[in-house]
Amino acid sequence: MAEKSLESRASSIKQLASEVQNARENGSEDSEAFEKLIDALDDMRADLTAFLHDVFQHLPTNGKDTASASTHVKDLSKLVKIPADILLRIMRLLTANKIFLEIDKEVFCHTPLSAGMVDEMVSARLGSLFNGVFKASSSLSDAIDAGKRSAWEARFGMPMYEYFEKIPKSDRERMAKSMAISSIEEIEDLSVIFPWEKFNNIVDIGGSAGHLVVHLVKKFPHLQTVSQDLPEVTADQIRRIASLSPTEKALYDRVEFESHDNYTPQTRTDADAFMLRRCLHNNPDDDCIRMIKAVIPGLEHKPKARLLINEKLMPVWNSSDTRYKTKILRREDIAMMISVGGKERTLEEFAGLIRGADKKLEISEVYYGKNYFSVISVRLAR
């Protein structure tokens, strides 16, 4: 039986190889896409190695001319601790992708693309990708076979959030910076697409450093806000604010930091709106239902109170959106699968989670922003 299975698999591989070869000879679009996929894996390995060995940082970026901002590969190898012959091969592949430029034999300098990767915020985002998600992604198949919640757990032996509690503070800060980058445009979009002028008291559940509520109180002077998160997160923010100048502290006059667990029944009774911003895509369905259910006690005290679910909406099958546009979100969906066992969802799937939490919860309106960004407004029927 095993021999037949192997023979069948070998036959399938030969057939696939034949099809790829035929497609290559015919110059088809499928062949080009296949080769780009394979090439991308090699390119990413070179990017990963260069980044984790600080190659980008060790090439000078402030020279007056190209020559003074360049480095011989032998000198660079001493700085990044990669043998010169290996580093040269990596650099030349990156150069082929316009990352770095070989201005003389074995002498390299930055290009605009590689210089951009030295930026602190960009570097933080790449660090989060290369140190975690990229490594975990190789264990996705193993996680599926073993019934693990995520590829991260299969690779590192623990869930992602537990992993980050145990790593050095500098690495945690890098992760926080990465998340801040991805949320800047989203927070601005959120402040535009939703009618905040109709509300007075806002609670941001899982609000972390309070980026959203601080942005909102700057734009809407009438708002009073609360940022809820775990005790250690809240304590960190209170200490951070205490060290600020009086002018900087003034930004937080209408921001309160409060300890709260997302799964604990909501104790706030004075809020007009409770925000779950990008909390649900980090979690599987059962945990999402628990989170939504925990907000209900807060909604019961005000007839017009709303739960605001801020997520990206996955397009439905056969959507008219371009393949490129949908591919970006589908990549994010797989990233959630790899890192935390979460997922990006369609509006119908969110409606299912809401009904699963309580039959009295119903969607009152949906507000749409850029790139599938949305706010689902949920009310408690009386």
UniProtKB/TrEMBL annotation:
The keyword Amino-acid biosynthesis is assigned to this record: no
Pfam families in alphabetical order: Methyltransf_2
GO biological process: methylation
SUPFAM superfamilies in the cross-refs: S-adenosyl-L-methionine-dependent methyltransferases, Winged helix' DNA-binding domain
Alphabetized UniProt keyword annotations: Methyltransferase, S-adenosyl-L-methionine, Transferase
Keyword S-adenosyl-L-methionine set for record: yes
Coiled-coil intervals, chain numbering: none
Protein's UniProt name: O-methyltransferase C-terminal domain-containing protein
Domain O-methyltransferase C-terminal: 139-357
Cleavable signal peptide: none
GO molecular function, one term: O-methyltransferase activity
Origin superkingdom: Eukaryota
The organism of origin for this protein: Botryotinia convoluta
